[in-house]
Write a structure and sequence with these properties.
5-stranded antiparallel sheet; alpha+beta; Immunoglobulin-like
């Protein structure tokens, strides 16, 4: 595990932890839920009619038909319960996710039953403050087997997204009822702002609130931070004290390149700037431009320094990254969590996210 950085990172409202479901929520929530399908409603209505006719006439043939129809209903409940039992799930999120860009989420199901397969299992993801219409379908999961399916969605906004659980449903075997259960499976990832090249932004709409400058790196071989030792690297820069404190990682000192170019970018997102008309849209556009400039600078071997306001309390957020390692991801994460957090408009917040 990498050592924590000494630089401050923006948090805002996204750093507040979401409490896990307590025992009261688990007790009041039913373990299974059931609803009639259109075919199930028709079948139940016919079964009720056959039952009334059998009682009124006393015809043994009608009683036989009624018994067969009721047995189908009971069998449907038993087999659907077998299909939902003994399943465990794992979610795999992409390493990088950008706002407004399609991302791939994988769902893995493991059938822990020793003898019974699970048929026709449908899994829908639950995301906090989001509504998705994409589901993963598993036709058959054999006993003791694992299967993986994936779906694509578009993250509408930058920032932290929390996946809270799964809805696991089945209509097996006759499609008369849909039975489902809720599975608690929490994950989260940070959605980066989508980089926007400078040539793609009209000059008339460019913001004049921030600034960027460059200079030569002062000093020679200054320690820039700590990180894990990568494969093939020399152990010359190992920090043995930090390595002894770590459990499963070898920590090395990361030094700035001699004479490297330093790109400094200041983002003005303080209280005074937020009072300006149209600040939210212009700030999100500026973040996309800064994301492109940051990635471009790091890919060309420059040292990047980012400064901004960390919330409305006047604290400064500062990040300094070198072109080696995961510098691009650290810079994009810094920009993704900068306040103020973007918000969907009122109509978009209640509609489903459309994936092309």
């Amino acid at each position: 595990m990498a050592a924590p950085s000494a630089t401050a990172t923006p948090s805002g409202r996204d750093d507040r932890p979401r409490p896990a479901p307590n025992w009261r929520t688990r007790l009041t929530r039913p373990p299974r839920r059931l609803r009639f399908t259109r075919e199930g409603k028709f079948f139940t209505f016919v079964t009720f009619g056959v039952g009334v006719a059998a009682i009124n006439t006393g015809n043994n043939l009608l009683y036989l038909v009624l018994g067969l129809m009721l047995s189908l209903i009971v069998l449907s409940g038993v087999l659907s319960e077998v299909a939902l039992r003994g399943l465990t799930f794992k979610r795999r999120l992409p390493r990088r996710a950008f706002a407004g860009t399609s991302l791939l989420v994988e769902i893995e199901v493991h059938n822990n039953k020793k003898w019974a397969p699970s048929y026709s299992v449908e899994v829908e993801d639950r995301i906090e403050h989001r509504v998705t219409d994409k589901r993963c379908y598993f036709l058959k999961v054999s006993a003791g087997a694992r299967q993986t399916a994936a779906y694509r969605r578009v993250a509408p906004l930058r920032g932290r997204e929390r996946y809270v659980g799964l809805r696991v449903a089945t209509r097996f075997p006759f499609g008369l009822f849909e039975k489902w259960r809720e599975v608690d499976l929490e994950d989260e990832h940070v959605v980066f702002p989508s980089p926007l090249a400078q040539s793609e932004v009209p000059r008339a709409r460019a913001m004049d609130r921030g600034g960027a400058s460059s200079k030569k790196e002062r000093g020679r071989g200054d320690v820039d931070g700590l990180r894990e030792l990568r494969d093939g690297e020399s152990a010359r820069e190992v920090d043995w004290k930090k390595t002894a404190q770590s459990v499963h990682a070898v920590i090395v000192r990361e030094r700035a390149s001699e004479g490297a170019k330093v790109v400094q970018i200041d983002l003005r997102n303080g209280p005074a700037e937020r009072e300006r008309p149209g600040f939210s849209g212009l700030f999100e556009e500026e973040l996309r431009r800064v994301a492109w400039r940051s990635s471009h600078a790091l890919e060309n071997g420059a040292v990047l320094e980012l400064r901004a306001q960390d919330g409305g309390n006047g604290r400064q957020a500062f990040l300094r990254v070198t072109p080696s390692g995961d510098g691009v991801e650290r810079a994009l994460r810094f920009l993704a969590l900068l306040p103020p957090a973007p918000a969907l408009s009122e109509p978009d917040a209640t509609t489903k996210v459309k994936v092309k």
